[in-house]
Design goal:
The chain is mainly beta. It has one domain. The protein is built from two helices and 15 strands. It has helices at residues 2-17, 154-161; strands at 24-25, 38-47, 50-61, 65-76, 81-93, 98-109, 113-120, 125-131, 172-177, 182-194, 206-218, 235-242, 247-255, 262-272, 278-282. The chain has a 15-stranded antiparallel beta sheet that branches. Strand 14 and strand 15 form a beta hairpin.
């Protein structure tokens, strides 16, 4: 039973962790006109203190539109579970938040492969395509049309998560639909922490520490949240401000469980700002 539960958690972790490599704009009191021209980042994935995989992220932007790609490789349970995935999304950059237009997640395990493709219009999700296609679980809370209005795909949600007109980036609620499940990430400020750099970058070293609560809305099975072994109330993300590039860098993501924490940690980040300044971060 614990083996099957762990495999299910690994699938959720692998599908969700690829989201967290995105970078997002630092709050500004003016209209957003200086998104970074490009970002390339590499993260390491850990579970229970052991390295289980890696995630790479790349984005490009012309200040009005964005395109992102990512790839993840996870191996756990001494190789019994393997997951490889690629993710891509695109959309426009509004004055308050990104507006997604397309999203696709492709994945492959030892026994199967599949994909999730979403299309958006101005109101929200317009199309959903799942491969393999199968009906929702009979115990799942039905996803209704109203649940798909004004939501983000997982990748664009990170841009929305740290973009605002001033204030603390940890103080917000982000509505997300991943193709199957509709949920909210409820964020709150937890404090700050300083980091040490392998090579001085000249950037601020104080991370914003955000507590993140996962709140299921639809598409989930209620029994999975009756006595969960994943602590959905106490997840954390740390964000590092990089004022010279007008971005926050997600530095770590931590998901506590009863048998250890799943952690994503930044290894290297290379940023090209809108004025072509190069910024390299190494931890």
């Amino acid at each position: 039973m614990i083996f099957q539960s762990f495999k299910a958690f690994c699938r959720r972790l692998a599908a969700g962790i690829v989201v967290a490599g995105a970078l997002a704009p630092v709050p500004s009191h003016a209209a957003d006109t200086s998104w970074p021209a490009s970002v390339a980042a590499k993260y390491k994935l850990y579970f229970g203190g052991f390295e289980v995989g890696s995630y790479r992220f790349k984005s490009t932007s012309n200040g009005e539109t964005y395109e992102t790609t990512g790839s993840a490789d996870v191996s756990a349970l001494f190789g019994a579970f393997k997951w490889k995935g690629g993710i891509e999304s695109s959309g426009t950059l509004g004055p308050k938040a990104p507006a997604p237009s397309a999203y696709k997640l492709s994945f492959k395990t030892k026994s199967k492969s599949g994909s999730v493709t979403l299309g958006f219009d101005k109101t929200g999700v317009k199309t959903v395509a799942l491969e393999p296609s199968k009906p929702p679980h009979p115990d799942a809370v039905p996803v209704k049309p109203e649940h798909l209005k004004s939501v983000f795909d997982p990748m664009s949600s990170i841009l929305a998560m740290t973009h605002a007109s001033g204030g603390n980036p940890c103080d917000r609620t982000i509505p997300i639909f991943d193709g199957k499940v509709r949920f909210n990430l409820v964020m709150s400020a937890k404090g700050e922490q300083n980091i040490k750099e392998e090579k001085p970058s000249g950037q601020p070293k104080a991370l914003k520490v955000c507590k993140v609560k996962y709140v299921p809305v639809a598409g989930h099975k209620p029994k999975d949240f009756a006595k969960p072994w994943v602590d959905y109330d106490s997840m954390e993300i740390t964000l590092r401000p990089i004022p010279s590039a007008n971005v926050y860098v997600p530095y770590t993501v931590t998901i506590p469980t009863t048998i250890g924490s799943a952690v994503m940690s930044a290894e290297s980040v290379n940023i090209t700002s809108s004025d072509h300044t190069q910024i390299a971060l190494t931890q």
